[in-house]
TrEMBL record:
<dbReference type="InterPro" id="IPR019236">
    <property type="entry name" value="APP1_cat"/>
</dbReference>
<protein>
    <submittedName>
        <fullName>App1 family protein</fullName>
    </submittedName>
</protein>
<feature type="domain" description="Phosphatidate phosphatase APP1 catalytic">
    <location>
        <begin position="154"/>
        <end position="303"/>
    </location>
</feature>
<dbReference type="Pfam" id="PF09949">
    <property type="entry name" value="APP1_cat"/>
</dbReference>
<dbReference type="InterPro" id="IPR052935">
    <property type="entry name" value="Mg2+_PAP"/>
</dbReference>
Amino acid sequence: MNPARTAFRALLPVLERGVSALDRSASAFLQPRRARGKLLLQPYVGWGTPGRVEVSGRVLLPRTMRPPQTGDPRLRNVRNALRRLFSREVGGIGVTGTLDGVPARAVSDSDGYFTLVFTLPEPLGAGWHEAALSLDGREGTTTARVQVVSQARFGIISDLDDTVIQSDVTSVPRMLLTVLTGNARTRSPFPGVSALYRALTHSEHERNPIFYVSSSPWNFFDLLLSFLSYRHIPLGPLFLRNWGVDLLAGHGGYKHEVIERLLTRFPDLPFVLIGDSGEKDPEIYAEVVRRHPQRILGVYIRDVTEAHRDTGVMTLRDEVRHTGIDLVLAADSLNAAGHAMSLGLITPDGYRGVLESVTRSA
């Protein structure tokens, strides 16, 4: 392992303790003041089974940002990105939710996060539902969308950065320029990705659920959600990361944890894994296949790197093939769609939709 990386990992516990101490000191002074003002309740996309659903979110001080437009100046996008990154969270706030008449309650932590857990006496039907959320002692409610998974042919677990949305994560300067100066309407998806994901999620008789796992911080949740909606990419729960020391510690363990959680929550559901070659998706997904060969139908890796990286991915592809699973290094969405059609994961009509989308973008 790289000596610098080894030293950084050894330093992480010290940094985490220092950050925690600073958080406690700041919270003791700031939180009571913030709690007295106007608050923003930001729910994330809920998910679960017919009998158990989780809805997470965050309590923040409001920030002033108008809806994004394609013609917004870059400077405005930079200011909005910084407002998101330097959010002012509020802890110790009670949050109450109701889903299908069933209540749940939680209290926001020092970073403003909360998770409501609903245990349903009467099972919910598969598909989308809405939960009503409110802050204790405050007027008004906020609606959270909830994806309930029951009968489905398979699920999809997808990365976002450089898999769905062009982010240039292999180059830090380009990535920062892209992330900071763009907005939900100017950020670009890869050609054909919307048509491919619609083909994967829409089977003949049911909707296959999709879950997005990204190393982006939760601070960008609203931007990513707006991006998916604007680009007509199927909605699904987003699993992002807390902004801070844990964001610098690498995302391999984090992604493993989320995927294992989904596999455990939906024990009868096989999955398709989609990522890119820019970071560690091939290694992470290959390990998931080794642990759960009967649960994975296929792995699609978007090729966004140079030839030397492709060699390593091809080695992983050969290892994964021993389990009977294909790991496809896909040059574009059409390449992935062709393989998915050969497995029966999408229909010929779905493939034609991807072909038309990629052709229009050429």
